[in-house]
UniProtKB/TrEMBL annotation:
Record-stated family: Belongs to the glycosyl hydrolase 3 family.
Protein name: beta-N-acetylhexosaminidase
Listed GO MF terms: beta-N-acetylhexosaminidase activity
SUPFAM superfamilies documented for this protein: (Trans)glycosidases (SSF51445)
Gene3D superfamilies linked to this entry: Glycoside hydrolase family 3 C-terminal domain (3.40.50.1700), Glycoside hydrolase, family 3, N-terminal domain (3.20.20.300)
Keywords: Glycosidase, Hydrolase
Domain Glycoside hydrolase family 3 N-terminal stretches: 33-348
E.C. number: 3.2.1.52
Pfam families assigned: Glyco_hydro_3
Gene Ontology annotations of biological process type: carbohydrate metabolic process; peptidoglycan turnover
Record's catalysed reaction(s): Hydrolysis of terminal non-reducing N-acetyl-D-hexosamine residues in N-acetyl-beta-D-hexosaminides
Length: 557
């Protein structure tokens, strides 16, 4: 096995910790070594989830938490005895609707980028890490260091810190430092860099189209900075990087489009050798089509480890996937040396966050409840949210709104569209306006709209990053219910305002809307913050973290 310096960054283990890693690895059975290479998605009720964990004994789980804090704490208290080694518990700590269901709702990365205050990002990230650690989370698949260049991308959307490399670097490094200081290993993603392809890896292998020189100035800079800062893991994604592959082999052909999760060249040659990354490489979710596009699962699962990923993320049939690895070891495709190398890094991550220590405190309900109930957390989140809303344009000088001038309000709304929810969630913003004295009417398909009946038309759109949506756009027909409604525009007859509580690029589809606001997230705190700004009680302090005009002057007027 190639020697891994566990005393070096990012693990920084002492002799005792290193001895535990080696002794634990060598004590595992061949089957349990391979199981350590899996992180499984856990979304069942806690008791059922524990049975599944005990049956497979994975290296870790990614937990989709229920709102029942007591049940989740009970699960976490049993998890480390469910296998031969303490387990990592991971999540996508991305804020907004991705906040813990019993935790504090905080702005998402694009919202933090609109504030553009590294101290705020550090404070919010510390809050997130403390709450996560209190419920047993020790690994986050964030920060996202993708770049918002392909504006219709549904996979980057609100998850990154915008389109400016320097700003992304500042905020990502702040989050890495805050997370890892408070016992949560950080992950940068999506290697080797997403944001210039407007497709979604859940549906197709995407492509990083940059030249090597362009990549070095953008993603190369970001990944090198994160590695230098000691980030513990990198998520290798279902993204091809043909320029680098062709640099090594001009006749690469289809190999130039092999996703990173399957590529020795991108994981080993570029990430490990050229960038010097010594930490853990975790694959992106392997049930995604961007992974499955490349071949049958009995080939792609072993190739994922052969290619340099130390962890296989998610599996629809873990036992079948485990047997694919067993078979690959048996026929020589996957060497035992490579397996041991991957297990070593898995165990090193666990040691780096202290999971092996006998005095490591277990999650406790009373302390978790106390941390979740801290009044300071809500104050911090509210203060941050107040700085997020961004006034992109107000060509008719509509704002601020008042019941005296804009009493009768007609609202067209998508509701809060969520990746895993079958139906959109209702927004509270209409009720907040009603409480302020506005007469609010929410549009329904059977309405005949007479512009003279209203003093304001308000479009409320709330689509954050949407998995498998492929591209996000303003779907006028869905918003209005029919083809004739889709063609109606009211802003020449009635003052009109469009507010996005998520995706920031709707001016591409509504360039002539006279007043437009971006708020990047649809959580309750953000809706309340938007109302405060619309009524003029708080200033619009947010700064555009992306180009809301999508590279065109059309939307500016």
């Amino acid at each position: 096995m190639a020697a891994i310096d566990l005393s070096a960054a990012p693990f920084n283990l002492d002799e005792e910790d290193t001895a535990w890693v080696h002794a634990t690895r060598d004590s595992l059975s061949p089957r349990d070594k391979l199981a350590q290479l899996f992180v499984l998605l856990s979304r069942e009720a806690p008791e059922e989830a524990l049975d599944a964990i005990r049956a497979f004994k994975p290296g870790g789980i990614t937990r989709i938490f229920t709102p029942e804090l007591a049940d989740e704490i009970a699960l976490m208290r049993h998890i480390n005895s469910a296998g031969p080694v303490p387990m990592t518990v991971s999540a996508d700590l991305e804020g907004s609707r991705m906040s813990l269901p019993f935790g504090t709702e905080v702005p998402n990365p694009l919202g933090l980028a609109a504030i553009d205050d590294v101290e705020v990002t550090s404070t919010i990230s510390t809050l997130m890490a403390e709450e996560a650690h209190a419920v047993g989370l020790n690994w986050s698949f964030t920060p996202v260091i993708d770049i918002n260049k392909a504006f219709q991308s549904a996979i980057v959307g609100t998850r990154s810190y915008g389109d400016d490399v320097e700003r992304i670097e500042r905020h990502a490094l702040a989050q890495i430092a805050a997370f890892q200081k408070h016992g949560v290993a950080a992950t940068v993603k999506h290697w080797p860099g997403e944001g210039y392809d407007d497709r979604d890896q859940h549906l197709v292998t995407t492509v990083n189209p940059l030249s090597l020189a362009e990549w070095e100035k953008t993603f190369g800079r970001l990944y090198r900075a994160a590695i230098e800062a000691g980030v513990m893991s990198v998520m290798s994604a279902h993204i091809a990087f043909p320029a680098f592959v062709r640099e090594l082999d001009p006749e690469a052909g289809a190999e130039a489009y092999r996703p990173a999760t399957q590529s020795v060249v991108l994981n080993q040659t570029l990430l490990r050798e050229k960038l010097g990354f010594n930490g853990l490489i975790v694959s992106d979710a392997t049930p995604m089509a961007g992974f499955g596009d490349w071949g049958p699962r009995e080939e792609t699962i072993p190739q994922c480890i052969i290619a340099g990923c130390d962890v296989i993320l998610f599996s629809d049939d873990p036992n079948a996937d485990l047997m694919y690895l067993v078979k690959a070891v048996a026929d020589g495709r996957l060497s035992q040396e490579r397996v041991d190398e991957a297990v070593t890094r898995v165990l090193a991550l666990k040691a780096a966050v202290g999971l092996h220590k006998a005095d490591q405190p277990e999650p406790a309900l009373d302390s978790a409840e106390m941390i979740m109930a801290r009044s300071t957390s809500k104050q911090i989140a509210s203060a941050a949210s107040a700085k997020v809303p961004t006034l992109v344009k107000d060509v008719t000088k509509l704002l601020p709104l008042t019941p005296a001038k804009h009493k009768r309000v007609l609202i067209f709304s998508t509701g809060a569209v969520q990746p895993f929810a079958p139906e959109p969630l209702p927004l509270s913003l209409p009720d907040l306006l009603a409480q302020e004295g506005f007469d609010v009417t929410e549009y329904s398909e059977d309405m005949q709209v007479n512009p003279r009946d209203f003093d304001l038309v308000l479009y409320l759109l709330a689509e954050e990053t949407l998995l498998t949506r492929q591209r996000i756009f303003l779907n006028w027909r869905a918003l209005t219910g029919n083809v004739f409604g889709a063609m109606k525009r009211y802003w020449h007859d009635v003052p009109t305002l469009m507010v996005s509580l998520g995706y920031p690029y709707y001016l591409h589809d509504a360039p002539r809307v006279p007043t437009y606001v971006n708020a990047y997230g649809s959580n309750e705190e953000m809706q309340a913050a938007v109302v405060e700004c619309l009524l003029g009680r708080k200033p619009f302090a947010g700064k555009n973290p992306v180009d809301p005009f999508c590279g065109s002057d059309q939307g500016k007027y």
